[in-house]
Amino acid sequence: MDISLLFNEAVDSTSERMGLIAGVVLISLIGYEWLMGRYRDGRKTREDWAMGFISIGMLAVVQRPLLMVIIFLGLSALFPAGAESLRWLELEYFWPTIIGYCLIDEYLHGRAHLFAHVAPVETPWLRKIQNFYKRAHRPHHQIGGNDGRGELSVTHTYVEHWGWWLILPNYWFGIICLYFGLYEIFFWGTLVKTLWGMHVHTNWGHSYDLYLLNHSNAWVRKLTYAVCHVFTLPNMHHQHHSRSQNSAKNMTNFISVFDWLLWDTLVIEQQRPETYGWRQTPREEHSALYRYFHTNFKNL
Questions:
Q1: Which 3 state secondary structure label does DSSP give 163?
Q2: What whole-number distance in Å separates Cα of residue 70 and Cα of residue 56?
Q3: Alpha helices in the chain (DSSP H)
Q4: Which of 133, 147, 141, 174 has the alpha carbon at shortest distance from 295?
Q5: CB neighbours (10 Å) of residue 88?
Q6: How would you write the pLDDT of the chain (300 residues) with one tens digit per residue?
Q7: Which pTM does this prediction carry?
Q8: Which one, of 277, 204, 291, lies nearest residue 243 by Cα?
Q9: Residue 242 backbone dihedrals phi, psi, to 5 degrees
Q10: Pick from 235, 241, 244: which is nearest to 141 by CA?
Q11: CA 209 to CA 260: how far, in whole Å?
């Protein structure tokens, strides 16, 4: 198969559909936050807006296309006859395949995320890699200023350092699946995770899970508590973005069962975080460009 034909038609169509839907939902959630007054009184700063625009723009224009070119060229050289070779999986076993895709994707994402939060590893060369992960993830936890007024919002879903999207193993996994012909699996699996990720970052105020966790009916509270062990709900991820020990908890954006059963990082709170965001120590970190681009490779 002509790799350029595959890349131009099937992959471009899949990416365009997903980008359009995600863009519409993102704009809708920004509109909701604005109408509800979630950007007032220092909850969202100019640096927050700038980081959102820079990160989303670079992801769409540079990082995702670059990864696709690198992975497709590499796989076409290693497996020239492999393009679309797994398409039968989604045609004959769609539901088992998409469930498997979501579980693998979320595990890889959560494990890399955990790697960026845990204490330094002992192996010197691996510690350098970990330090880059930590540096690449740090902007995602910088919200507002040091005054404690900043709050999480939907644009922060995409806020990272330039290197983060290039080193996320689940991004590589998804594009590899595209090469082997799992177009609908990639589309639906990635779209569901993308929309879920935006929904857990949105500033809902008193989110529905808090309402249910504090419900007067004990069965409602218990059922919601049980659901929190399977899926990450908004306040769980908001706690991850708090300026507290919970920022090292709730590593998944979608499937919390990994936090619960594998990493012992599951935290379920019944109130919103008191303060969001990590402290910005160097003066330069108040610059969006510094946050996004700065990397000191010598000190990794």
A1: coil
A2: 20
A3: 3-6, 12-35, 46-58, 64-78, 87-92, 94-115, 124-137, 164-167, 169-179, 183-201, 208-213, 218-227, 234-240, 257-258, 288-293
A4: 133
A5: 11
A6: 555 555 656 677 787 888 899 999 999 999 999 999 999 999 999 999 999 999 999 999 999 999 999 999 999 999 988 888 999 999 999 999 999 999 999 999 999 999 999 999 999 999 999 999 999 999 999 999 999 999 999 999 999 999 999 999 999 999 999 999 999 999 999 999 999 999 999 999 999 999 999 999 999 999 999 999 999 999 999 999 999 999 999 999 999 999 999 999 999 999 999 999 999 988 888 899 999 999 988 888
A7: 0.94
A8: 277
A9: -80, 160
A10: 241
A11: 18
Rg (CA), the chain: 20
Amino acid at 214: N
Residue showing tokens 């070779």: 85
C-beta of residue 163 within 8 angstroms of C-beta of residue 138: no
Strands, E assignment, 250-291:
none
Contact 217, 234 (CB under 8 A): no
Neighbours of 166 (CB within 10 A): 17
